[in-house]
Amino acid sequence: MHIMRRRGWELPEHMATPEHLFFDRRAFLQAAGLMAATLSPAAAMAQRIADLPDPTSDLYPAKRNEKFKLDRPITDEAINTNYNNFYEFGSSKSIARAAQALRLRPWTIKIEGMVEKPQEVGIDDLIRKMPLEERLYRHRCVEAWGMAIPWTGFPLAKLVDLAKPTSSAKYVRMETFLDKNMAFGQRAPYYPWPYVEGVTMAEAMNDLAFVVTGAYGKPVSKSQGAPLRLALPWKYGFKSIKSITRVIFTDQRPKTFWETLQSSEYGFWANVNPQVPHPRWSQATEEVIGTGQRRPTLLFNGYGEFVADLYKDLKGERLWA
Ligand code: MTE
Questions:
Q1: How many whole angstroms from 215 Cα to the centroid of ligand 1?
Q2: Which of 77, 87, 240 to mutate to test the pocket of ligand 1 (most atoms within 8 A of CB)?
Q3: What CATH code is assigned to 53-311?
Q4: C-alpha closest to that of 258 among 232, 282, 284, 240
Q5: Predicted structure pTM score
Q6: Rounded distance, CA 161 to CA 210, Å?
Q7: How do residues 43-87 score in pLDDT, each as one tens digit?
Q8: Hey, where are the domains in the chain?
Q9: Maximum distance among all alpha carbons in the chain?
Q10: Residue 241 near ligand 1, beta carbon < 6 Å
Q11: Buried-state track 202-232, b at ≥16 Cβ within 10 A, e below 16
Q12: What is the DSSP pairing of strand 119-122 with strand 108-113?
């Protein structure tokens, strides 16, 4: 697997963690590494068997939507599913094995807040209600690396249609599951669990905003955020929340997970911009994972034609990470 130098996505402890938790955190990270390492291949396999068969696997592969074109090869699946950020299962990139602890069924999504009819929908019912398609998307992490992925899913706008928000709703807030018995990373008290992300209604209705249920022609893997995650390819990857269980329509701008931890570095909008460096590193280029090469970063990750208009009247806002 490709190994890269740490770029500082993990916050320096003195900035993110109250001083008295500093040493506990080190102990936690060690314990976390140990736990990941002790999930034996047999246990991981047993977990995988318990998850089979996926009740929606007959829906894959879905027809590709040719509107979304790539300018680079698709990242190898083995690389993509073994180089992940999923802090619920550890703060390294190698969480794939630990993420096998994720139990995918039963899985319900609560749709609530400013909606005509709050509802709770089972993942399989939801997926079968939706028109699945495949889209080839670039993915750009704020750590200055990128991948290209064949996601399967449906437009976020379709979920909005299902929810029927009232006219007061201005934002869509999304949350990941909260279960510290299942995800040992959630035992770390200095992270503001559950993982929270959010978009405006206009962003949610944009053609590019995509709810992911699959990748590489089959149900999406656990390390990539099964069974339901977001893909917002014009924004830094931390906006693309994994393993969603709650969708809340609200008039309050959501305070997101990374914004709560470090608002000076990870803002609400987090659109990709090569000219605006992260406070601790440049965003001018990105490493194409799996190739060892770097290429210039593109404004809005190359998706300006779809999304630039969303931001033209927001000149006073900090639109970048
Ligand atoms: N969602 C949750 N729940 N937890 C996380 O730690 N990491 C984010 C995002 N969504 C994260 C998350 C970050 S920083 C990135 S870059 C992408 O997921 C990584 O997605 P990938 O593993 O499919 O590349």
A1: 15
A2: 240
A3: 3.90.420.10
A4: 240
A5: 0.87
A6: 14
A7: 555 455 555 689 999 999 999 999 999 999 999 999 999 999 999
A8: 53-311
A9: 55
A10: yes
A11: ebbbbebbbbbbbbbeebbbbbbbbbbbbbb
A12: antiparallel
